[in-house]
Specification:
Layout lengths: L14 E2 L4 E2 L6 H7 L1 E5 L5 E6 H5 L11 E9 L5 E6 L10 E2 L2 E3 L13 H5 L4 H15 L12 E11 L1 H4 L6 E12 L11 E7 L1 H7 L10 H16 L1 H6 L9 E4 L28 H8 L6 E3 L5 E4 L2 E4 L2 H4 L6 E3 L3
Parallel strand pairs: 5-10, 9-12
Antiparallel strand pairs: 1-2, 3-4, 5-8, 6-7, 6-11, 9-10, 13-16, 14-15
Length: about 350
């Protein structure tokens, strides 16, 4: 277990007026939830708007799986072929204390250079926006300097569409969860790791056999739902011949969006989200209230009731309080910018 002082990361956030970008230095989890604008999507990964992390991640009766948005998952390997894992910090609002891949986060709207990849970027497997976001977050979370990471060294493999309510952390009425189209990035690099304790509780390099041992049910460790899906469905073949994965297009699939429901332990939440995606990956907008509203709004993010004001921290975790009373009043509308 490493040890680091939160004070070392500074007391104030810094804003670059020239680029419009937030540096992340000194910013808390709440700061990021308010200021970061996620890229909202339709079912086919077309950009339909943007919204802050709070509204993008709140599971509620009106939006049982929140708002579908773009994400990325980095798998960083050292020169021995070991994977760098991180344990998310206890202070994380969503999925705290879980072990997962090297870095999992979101490309954001409003950054310069842009982190919003176009359909052409995806078709070519270049995805410069997602790769730039990965470099930014590897610095912010793990203290890995951008100079140690070449964006050309990242290999974009495919996309994963999944959802999961964070009921393990916040109980059966959890207001938080993930609903993402996740871009999978592999990279092999020699890096110096200096984790930000606001983000990371621990980190570890592992072999595939060591990872499988860590993930046994009797280990007592918590794992992120997206990482578990990737391990069970894909990781063995990708990691099994790492050189081929990194240097050829054998495992690159830019046309498919692989779709999965979460496991039973992550269903439910404040919107009582249940099985939606078939075993063959089939699903439709009719099965998700927010995506249905996007389709009805001509493919643009619709206005929706703001949920952040109903969030309350209780001894059992975060909850949505006062929704029943608010239902009898005119709704405070929240615009997800298109």
């Amino acid at each position: 277990m490493y040890s680091a002082s939160k004070a070392a990361y500074g007391p104030v956030a810094r804003h670059d007026e020239a680029s419009g970008n937030w540096s992340g230095k000194g910013m808390s989890q709440v700061d990021f939830m308010l200021k970061d604008e996620c890229i909202l999507l339709d079912l086919d990964d077309h950009v339909v708007g943007h919204d802050n992390k709070y509204e993008s991640h709140i599971f509620c009766p009106a939006r049982p799986r929140a708002k579908l948005h773009r994400a990325f998952s980095v798998f960083l390997f050292d020169q021995q072929g070991r994977l760098l894992l991180q344990q998310r910090a206890a202070d994380k609002i969503t999925f705290p204390n879980v072990w997962t891949n090297t870095c999992c986060s979101h490309p954001l709207f409003g950054y310069s250079p842009t982190e919003v990849d176009t359909e052409a970027d995806i078709a070519s497997a270049a995805v410069p926006g997602v790769k730039a976001a990965a470099v930014r977050k590897l610095k912010q979370e793990l203290g890995i300097e951008p100079e140690q990471l070449s964006t050309d060294a990242f290999k974009f493999l495919t996309r994963l569409h999944y959802w999961a309510a964070d009921v393990v952390t916040h109980g059966p009425q959890s207001p938080f969860g993930e609903h993402e189209i996740d871009y999978i990035l592999f990279i092999q690099a020699t890096v110096d790791v200096h984790p930000n304790p606001e983000e990371v509780g621990d980190f570890k390099y592992v072999t595939f056999d060591e990872l499988k041992a860590m993930m046994r049910p009797d280990s007592g460790l918590l794992w992120s739902p997206w990482f578990r899906i990737i391990v069970e469905r894909f990781l063995g073949k990708w990691w099994g011949d790492l050189k081929q994965t990194l240097t050829t297009d054998t495992h690159v699939d830019v046309s498919t969006i692989h779709r999965f429901d979460c496991t039973d332990e992550h269903m439910g939440g404040a919107g009582d989200a249940r099985t939606w995606i078939g075993e063959d990956g089939a699903c439709s907008t009719d099965g998700d209230a927010w995506l249905k509203a996007v389709a009805a709004n001509e493919g643009k993010a619709p206005e929706s009731q703001a949920m952040k004001d109903f969030l309350k921290k209780t001894p059992e975790g975060w909850q949505l309080i006062g929704l029943d009373a608010a239902a009898a009043q005119p709704a405070k509308r929240h615009k997800s910018s298109a």
